[in-house]
Write a structure and sequence with these properties.
- With about 525 residues, the protein is α/β, with parallel strands linked by helices.
- It folds into 2 domains: about 290 residues, Glycosidases (TIM Barrel, Alpha-Beta Barrel), CATH 3.20.20; about 90 residues, Immunoglobulin-like.
- Helix content is about 25%, strand content about 15%.
- It is built from 12 helices and 20 strands.
- An 8-stranded parallel β-barrel has the order 1-2-5-6-7-8-9-10, surrounded by 5 helices.
- Bound molecules: ligand LM2 and calcium ion (CA).
- Ligand LM2 binds next to helix 1, helix 2 and helix 10.
- This is Alpha-amylase.
- Belongs to the glycosyl hydrolase 13 family.
- One of its GO terms (molecular function) is alpha-amylase activity.
Length: about 525
C-alpha cells in the first residue's frame, strides 16, 4: 500500500516526499545508470498550437477502466443506446509484465498499475492485442461512441525487464520504443534532486524532470521524444480514436505538451483530438490545474475532493450536499468548459480516501446521478472491477495477467455505468443540455434540488431517512416518470411517478440516499 500512498501524495502535491521516495526507490531492484553525463543541447521545443479553444466537448463518457478490448467492443452498443458520447479506455501501449512480486504489501504479481509502466508503443497489452484494439474502436464508433485513450507519455517503467508484448528492456534503454539513456532527464543530469525522484512538488523543474514514483522520466522537450510520442498517438488517431486523457500531465512542461499536441493529426471526424490533462491539485502557479487549462482540458480532481466532502461530512456538521448548489466555478474550480468531471477515477478509487467509490454503494450512485444533473464539466462515469482490502489488486485475469471477459453478472465488475439510476441520469443530462440551473432548493439538511431551465428537475437526498419536499419545478402541469427508477417505458412509468400542479409545484418524496428526477421527455 506504500504505492497508493505515494500516488495520493503526488496527486495532492504535498511538499516533502524525499524520505518516502527514497524508501520506495530502494524497494525496486533497479540500479541507476552510472554517473549522469551531460547531454548535447536539445533543439528548442516548437511553439505548439495550444489545445485550448480548439477541441470538441466529449459530453458524457464512461471510463471502462481495465475492461478488455473485446469486452468494451461488446459493451459499446449498450453505451450508445443509453446515450454515452464516449468511452475512455485504459493505457493500450505495451507495458511491463512483472515476473516477481515486490516487497511487503506489494504482493499481487499483476497489480492494476502495471499498465502505467510503458515499454514500447506496440498495442499488445493486458487488455488485448492490436487487432482487438482496432476492432473495439471500430465497433464503438459504429455504435456512435467515441473512444478516448489514457496516454502515458511522461515516462517508461520503474521496474521489471519484460513486457506483455514479449519485449525486453533494461533501465533507460527501450529498444522497441527507440529510447536510449539520452532520452531521459535523469540520465542527462536534468533532474535537480539527489536520488532522481521528486522531493518537492512545488518545484517545477523537479515536477517536470524528475522520476515520478521511480518511473523513468522522458525528455519530452526534445524533438526526438516528441516525434516518438506523436507517432504513437497519431497511430491511435488513425485507428479511429478521438482523443486522450494525458497521464501525469502535470509532470510535463506546458510547452512540451503543446509541442506534442501540435504534431497530432485530426481525428477521423476531422476534428482536433480531445486532450484532457491530468493535473493533480495542490501545487501553486504554473503547476496548478488552472494554469494548465491554457493547454487543454484538465481532470476535475479538486472537484472529486469537494464532492466527497459534501457527501460525507454531514454527520460531523461540517457541511452537506446542499452546499453543492454552487459547485463548479462557484466553489473555486476550473471552468466547466475546460474540465472533465467525475466522482472517482482509477487512482482515487484505489486510494480509498477523499473520494466516493463503488464501495460506498448508494452514496456513490447518488453522487454520480447528481453530477450528471448538475452540468459541471464533461461528466465521466467510472466503472471497473471490484476489489478487496489490498488496493494493489489487479483486474480479474489469468495467471499471465491477461484480463478476463467483463460481466455485469458475476460480481467481479461494478457495471456502475449501466445501473438504472445512472442510465436515467445520462439521458437526463443529454436531454437538458446547457439549460441553466434554476429553482434551487438547498435546505442545509443534506437535500438539494434544482431544475435545469424548463426542461428537467432533479432532487437529491443524502440523508439516511426519506424526506418529502414541496418545490417549484420549472416544469408544466402533468404526470412525470422518475428517470432514476427507470423513466418512461412504453407509455408508462417503470418506477416512481411525480405529479406537477398547475403552478409548477410538486410534492416529491426523496427516499434515503436516493434521487428523483424527471424531464419533459419522461412526461406521460
Ligand atoms: C498517474 N497519473 O499521473 C496515474 O494516474 C497513476 O495511476 C500512476 O501511478 C502514475 N501517474 C504513473 O503513471 C500508478 C500507481 C503507482 C505505480 C505506478 C506505476 O499509483 O503506485 O507505481 O502506477 O506502475 C508502482 C509502485 C511504486 C513504484 C513504481 C515504479 O506502486 O511503488 O515506485 O511502480 O516501480 C518505486
Ligand atoms: Ca516529466
Amino acid at each position: 500500500m506504500a504505492s497508493s500512498r505515494m500516488l495520493r501524495t503526488s496527486v495532492v502535491g504535498l511538499a516533502s516526499l524525499a524520505a518516502a521516495l527514497a524508501a520506495a526507490l530502494s524497494g525496486t531492484a533497479q540500479a541507476a545508470p552510472t554517473a549522469p553525463q551531460l547531454a548535447p543541447q536539445a533543439a528548442p521545443a516548437a511553439v505548439g498550437a495550444k489545445a485550448s479553444g480548439s477541441m470538441q466537448e466529449p459530453g458524457v463518457t464512461a471510463s471502462l477502466w481495465e475492461w478488455s478490448w473485446p469486452s468494451i467492443a461488446s459493451e459499446c452498443p449498450r453505451l450508445g443506446a443509453i446515450g454515452y458520447d464516449g468511452v475512455q479506455v485504459a493505457p493500450p501501449q505495451d507495458s511491463v509484465k512483472r515476473t516477481s512480486t515486490g516487497n511487503g504489501s506489494d504482493a499481487y504479481l499483476h497489480p492494476w498499475w502495471e499498465v502505467y509502466q510503458v515499454v514500447d508503443y506496440g498495442l499488445t497489452s493486458r487488455m488485448g492485442d492490436e487487432q482487438q484494439f482496432r476492432d473495439m474502436v471500430a465497433d464503438c464508433r459504429k455504435a456512435g461512441v467515441k473512444v478516448y485513450v489514457d496516454a502515458v507519455i511522461n515516462h517508461t517503467t520503474g521496474q521489471g525487464n519484460v513486457s506483455y508484448g514479449g519485449k525486453t528492456f533494461t533501465p533507460y534503454t527501450y529498444p522497441d520504443a527507440g529510447y536510449v539513456p539520452d532520452d531521459f532527464h535523469y540520465t542527462v543530469g536534468a533532474c535537480p534532486s539527489a536520488d532522481g525522484g521528486i522531493a518537492d512538488f512545488n518545484n517545477k523543474t523537479q515536477v517536470w524532470n524528475c522520476n515520478l514514483v521511480g518511473l523513468e522520466d522522458l525528455r519530452t522537450e526534445t524533438p526526438k521524444v516528441q516525434a516518438r510520442l506523436a507517432a504513437y498517438l497519431n497511430k491511435l488517431l488513425r485507428y479511429g480514436v478521438s482523443g486522450f486523457r494525458v497521464d501525469a500531465g502535470k509532470h510535463m512542461a506546458p510547452a512540451d505538451l503543446d509541442a506534442i499536441y501540435d504534431r497530432l493529426d485530426r481525428t477521423k471526424d476531422g476534428k482536433r483530438p480531445y486532450w484532457a490533462l491530468e493535473v493533480g491539485p495542490g501545487s501553486p502557479g504554473v503547476l496548478s490545474p488552472e494554469a494548465y487549462t491554457e493547454h487543454g482540458d484538465v481532470l476535475g480532481l479538486d472537484g472529486v475532493k469537494q464532492i466527497y466532502g459534501a457527501f460525507t461530512s454531514y454527520s460531523d456538521h461540517q457541511g452537506d450536499i446542499s452546499g453543492l448548489a454552487t459547485f463548479g466555478s462557484g466553489s473555486g474550480l476550473t471552468r466547466s468548459s475546460r474540465t472533465m468531471s467525475f466522482i472517482t477515477n482509477h487512482d482515487t478509487n484505489h486510494d480509498q480516501a477523499n473520494a466516493l467509490t463503488y464501495k460506498e454503494g448508494p452514496q456513490y450512485l447518488l453522487a454520480t446521478e447528481w453530477l450528471l444533473a448538475d452540468g459541471y464539466g464533461s461528466p465521466q462515469v467510472f466503472s471497473s472491477f471490484t476489489f478487496g482490502a489490498d488496493t494493489n489488486q489487479g483486474p480479474p485475469s489469468d495467471d499471465q495477467g491477461l484480463i478476463d471477459r467483463a460481466s455485469c453478472a458475476d460480481g467481479r465488475w461494478t457495471c456502475d455505468h449501466a445501473k438504472t439510476g445512472v442510465v436515467g441520469m445520462v439521458k437526463f443530462h443529454q436531454y437538458v443540455g446547457k439549460a441553466a440551473k434554476k429553482h434551487v432548493y438547498a435546505d442545509q439538511q443534506n437535500v438539494l434540488a434544482f431544475s435545469r431551465g424548463t426542461k428537467g428537475w432533479a432532487g437529491f437526498n443524502n440523508g439516511t431517512s426519506a424526506k418529502t419536499i414541496t418545490v417549484k419545478t420549472g416544469l408544466k402541469k402533468g404526470t412525470y416518470c422518475d428517470a432514476v427508477t427507470g423513466g418512461k417505458v412504453k407509455g408508462a412509468c417503470a418506477g416512481t411517478t411525480v405529479t406537477v400542479s398547475g403552478s409548477g409545484r410538486a410534492t416529491v418524496e426523496l427516499p434515503a440516499r436516493a434521487a428523483v428526477a424527471f424531464t419533459k421527455q419522461t412526461r406521460l
